[in-house]
Structure formats: C-alpha cells, structure tokens
Design brief:
About 35% of the residues lie in helices and about 15% in strands. The chain is α/β, with parallel strands linked by helices and about 180 residues long. The chain has a 4-stranded parallel sheet. About 30% of the residues are buried.
C-alpha cells in the first residue's frame, strides 16, 4: 500500500522532529528546509488563517499539502470540545472555515499518492495536534483502510473536530453535513 501509516502531530513537535532528524537541531531562519523533509513522508500542514508560514513547509513540493482554516463549526450542528479561537479573530476571516475546497484538496492529494509505487508515511499537523489534524488523520486512516485500533492507541489524545469529519465523510459515504 503506498500510504502505510498516518501520524498526527502538534506543529512545533513535528517541526522539531524533522529538524533533529536532518541534524539541524532547531529552526534557523534563511536556510532552505525542503532538504529536511524525508523523501518517504507526506505532509498535510494545517494552520490558522491568520498564521504566517515561515518554516519547513513554506516551499512548494508535491509531498506537502498546505491548508488554512479555523478549528470551528460554522453550522453549529456539531459540539465543539473546546473553543480554540476568539470570535473576533474568526470574524476577521469569516470565509476561512473548512469547506468543499479543503475536502477536494485532501482527496486529490491522497489519491495522487495512493496511485504511486512509492510507500509513504503521512504526517498531519495543526497547531495543537488534537482537533483539526485529529479529524483529518482519523478520517484518512478510515479512508486508506489502515488499522484504526492501532491508530487510536498511538493517538489517544486526539479529539477530532466532528464538523471536519462529517465534511470528509460526506464525499465518501454520500452523507449530508
């Protein structure tokens, strides 16, 4: 199987892990970081819409999907485990909620790499590594038919955003959000 594992990370922990593996140690501004991304790993990088990205995921590469959306439910249908963003902050970018464009980007990215002969580990991160990346990672384990029990054991801290999960499942199962 081309994608054999999904890992979910808090942003800084993944960044530090990759820099340490590359022998860099910590972020050094001005260096060219694509060389520290392992060739057998894929990345879905999820940031807040107000975040500026100046890091190892800045450069375009076909192994990195960069997304920006709030950890929130604009429909109010799904309970949020905790409120991460201030309403004023979200109101400054009202169109930056997880949407069909994000769903399509995730499916296209995964399907492109599912069809290759290379085997990859997929890393998904967001700021805290709990809700947004938890939802995307949990869904992709289901979608790729990987071991869900093992994933849950290794990622017991996850609290997937139910709205994001519903949006991703909607396309797969034809369920309405």
């Amino acid at each position: 199987m081309p994608i054999n594992e999904v890992r979910v990370w808090p942003y800084r922990m993944l960044q530090n892990e990759l820099l340490n593996r590359a022998g860099i140690g910590q972020i050094q501004w001005g260096l060219d970081y694509p060389s520290c991304l392992p060739k057998d790993e894929l990345f879905i990088s999820i940031l807040d819409p107000t975040s500026r990205q100046n890091d190892i995921f800045l450069h375009d590469t076909d192994r990195v999907l960069r997304l920006k959306f709030w950890d929130a439910d604009p429909t109010g249908k799904y309970p949020m485990i905790f409120q991460v963003h201030e309403l004023g902050e979200m109101n400054s970018f009202p169109d930056a909620f997880f949407n069909e464009d994000d769903v399509n980007a995730i499916y296209e990215f995964i399907d492109k790499h599912k069809g290759t002969p290379e085997t990859y580990t997929l890393n998904v991160h967001c700021k805290a590594g709990i809700s947004r990346s938890g939802a995307v990672g949990t869904f992709l384990v289901e979608y790729l038919k990987l071991d869900e029990e093992e994933f849950r054991e290794r990622h017991s801290w996850l609290r997937p955003n139910a709205y994001i999960m519903a949006m991703l499942r909607r396309r797969l199962w034809g369920v309405t959000v």
